[in-house]
Write the structure tokens for this entry.
Amino acid sequence: MRFLVDTGPILFSLRRHRTAATLIVLQIALTCAIVCNAIFLIRERLVRMDRPSGLVEDELLRVRLAGIGTTEGAQALTKRDLDALAAIPGVKSVVSVNMVPFGTSSWNSGVSTIPDDPKSPMNVATYLSGQDLVGTFGLNLIAGRNFQPEEILSFEDTAEPAVAIVSKATAERLFPNQDPLGKALYFGSKHPTRIIGVVELLARPNDWGGRDAVGCSVILPVRMAFGPASYILRVDTDRREEILAQVDAVLEQNSASRILDSKFTYTALRRDYFQQDRSMAWLMFVVSAALLVITALGVVGLASFWVQQRRRQIGIRRALGATRGDIVRYFQTENFILATIGIVLGMALAYGLNLVLMDKYEVERLPAQLLPIGALLLWSLGQVAVLGPALRAAAIPPAIATRTV
Amino acid sequence: MLRMKDVSKVYRTEVIETHALRELSLEVREGEFVAVTGPSGSGKTTFLNIAGLLEELTSGTYTLDGVDVSSLDDRARSRLRNEKIGFVFQSFNLIPDLDLFANVDVPLRYRGLSRTDRHRRIASALERVGLGSRMKHFPAELSGGQQQRAAIARAIAGGPKLLLADEPTGNLDSAMAREVMQLLEELNAQGTVVVIVTHDPEIAARAQRNIHVVAGIAADLERGPALVRAPAGAADHHQPTA
């Protein structure tokens, strides 16, 4: 293979230019390690940002109110609010709920399949709503039924809910390979809460419990008043902004002694929630790109220096029968060898760096399939970077060999 | 073996034209040992560069071993250079990063020979010049004479028909120069055409034939000056008229 024709002499030559070769190899190795981990972290962030909630997000609006002074009669006022909001043209349904996926608050409970369990085997996000949360969120009820009006409690009641709807992830975790319907859950007491329905997916509000707990949630039929709760409106997608603009006036008509804390489309809510991930992904991208550019410049610099230093040697090779293509190939092969050594070292370093990140932060193990991507990236980068100096080298005339030094 | 007819070489810049060779015609036959002489700047090196396919001629025809080289592209010229010509340079031109074995291997690799064939040729060439025991030495570890002998080994390893030597003894003391000349004569005796560019009359005297180049024009001294000789001195320069 013509590509490998110079491998032996190149290795020979590199041994005699150890310092420069070592420096560029180390630079490539470091870049490989950092870029592999950066690609991994970017991918993690992108996957996280793309995490499904189970909700019909593009139809939802979220409104939060804060009361001024006492909130006596909050439940009644909430009922009036929900009725008034439901009457806005374009609104399909409204609920009051203690939290939402990608919101700022999170209600969680330990749950067990046995009564009075001091060590609950599982933690779930506990959604509380006295209205049709399944319908308004647009959840996919895959088994059982929705709540009946008589099953709904008020948040102020001391009684515990008799029924619950669980997410599929919760059901599979608590009752693997069993039909969860009718089974009892215990929230740290003797009181059983029977499962009456299963929804396909209802994400937790945040990352509490880690990656495996993302879909572990329970809905309890508990009426929530404004203040701790938010109003969620399911509306026509293309009327979201129009309806959002009417919300203030409608709620103020019911009571002027409240402050509209926030109102968002769900799309904006998701965007805000993942803002840090987006920023981090961009930062990683920029750092990786900068590192790759610096490495490419390093390759260009070293190759240019070697071309300049070897002008006569290149002329001699040309005089001895090397074509212009042979000279280009010589520099490409040299770069390929240096990049390969750098990549091999870089991969070991990448795993080392990943182990440190795993130890210090909540980072998964670097998947092996990322390594060939990193290798290809650096090989390509090296070949592109060396092409300019290699073409300049190929342009050196063979007659330089007969010029007296 | 080597036939040039009306070969001219003009170097052009934006402001000046330099006529390094002017309608030079000459022939070197099979088995000859020819010395090309002339004062500095007369065009000897340009002649060597063109004869060795290191530079392209501006006009005229040049036939090397029956091949008209005027129309060849870079790849074909490189291949012809690699297969037909061996070079011996004044400053040896060994590659300092490579040991003698690898240095001699350079032109053989470009020819695409098998590893076994290359190794056989390298060993034979280095033995031939008396450096069989120095294969793993680097050029800097050898004397000037040894380096030039290594360069000759590199030139002959591919079995060229034509050996072009540019002042091969210019950087050597007289004992080493004799050694190198003896080697070139032996190679010539075995059938290799040797063309040696020199300004040393002693070296030139050992050749079968001398071609004197003055101001880019050649005169064959064995047969008498067949061409009009221009005034001695550097190749002339004049402003382009076009």
Q: What stands out?
A: Helices of chain B lie at 44-51, 74-84, 100-111, 115-128, 144-156, 174-189, 201-205. Residues 174-189 of chain B form the longest helix (16 residues).
